[in-house]
Amino acid sequence: MKAIIIGAGIGGMSAAAALDQQGIDCEVFEAVKEMKPVGAAISIWSNGVKCMNHLGMGQIMDDLGGPMHNMAYLEGFSAAQMTRFSLKPLVEEVGERPCPVSRADLQSRMIDWWGRDKVRFGKRLECVTQDENGVTATFTDGSMAHGDFMIAADGAHSIAREYVLGQTVERRYAGYVNWNGLVEIDEAIAPADQWTMFVADGKRVSVMPIADNRFYFFFDVPLPKGLPEDRSTVVNDLKGYFEGWAEPVQRLIDAINPDTTNRIEIHDVEPFSPLVKGRVALLGDAGHSTTPDIGQGGCAALEDAVVLGRCFAASCDIEGALQCYNNSRLERVKDLVLKARKRCEVTHGFDPAETQAWYDELRAETGVGIMSGLSKTILGGPLG
């Protein structure tokens, strides 16, 4: 049995690992000639780390994950502490730690684990066909590949999605812009073992530790879509958006390198079904593109892979196994997309009264409420 896997990102490589565990031959095709990830880092919460362990790649998380032992919210203008707590109770409850990691390092290590020479780069999907003999992928360079089935992990702009659904699905602008990158850890900005967030006026500034003494940072600002900004203006833009904010925020802005800072207009995709058409299945962002507001985008792709592997472990019938995958994932991924959307709206001031109520809740938060929500999301995954 042979699978064609479209995409060598987190979803594609985890799918390859899961299918390989079931003795299925996998051929991986990646659109770009060289991996250049969007986004500096990614939050892999405990459910995602469990999936990496299950897929045999747990060592990668041990090597790349930062020491995120605590969590804190600070008021943006004054840096006054709203809440701060240890994540140890969460780790003890769910059985695994969260691992914020460099996205580039994670993808590179996953590809190396699989075998870089086994990934065919520069193969951008153009169209998909299938019949009783299997699935054929045609690429923009005119080449083709054939397999018994296809796992399409070709991202938020998926070509395969249109084939599966028979229509184009428009991405939805979430209403805010995110700047992100990496800086050397500076404890004048925040403690080195803590996820620290500054919040005010529907805006957010965050730093979290990753490996090699680095902070992953991001700035969120509610803005209209399509503003003409670029790397050359990033420092001045952020200085303007965060004028009057506390000294640690100003220090972070001064520390960033505009040449390695990403500016992303955040989108998601309305939950849809099905994820499968015959012998073609969507996985990761191709099937459930979400905002990053609950840190579950990468985790959901890893969960997809684990469930995919389980379905093939239970059945050698390709279409039956893919339908099992579809049925097992639809409600879970819909819940994650909508939960992230709701968190996005509260965090970014879509209803100012609701956002202010959240700020007031944070000032009374002991950590129990936040960790309860995190725990529910984590334990809702396929590995508990």
From TrEMBL:
Pathway noted in the entry: Purine metabolism; urate degradation
Superkingdom assignment: Bacteria
Pfam (any one): FAD_binding_3
Domain (FAD-binding) ranges: 2-337
EC number: 1.14.13.113
Signal peptide limits: none
Class of enzymatic activity (EC top level): oxidoreductase
Transmembrane domains' residue ranges: none
Any GO molecular function: urate oxidase activity
Protein name: FAD-dependent urate hydroxylase
Organism (species): Marinomonas aquimarina
Lineage of the species this protein comes from: Bacteria, Pseudomonadati, Pseudomonadota, Gammaproteobacteria, Oceanospirillales
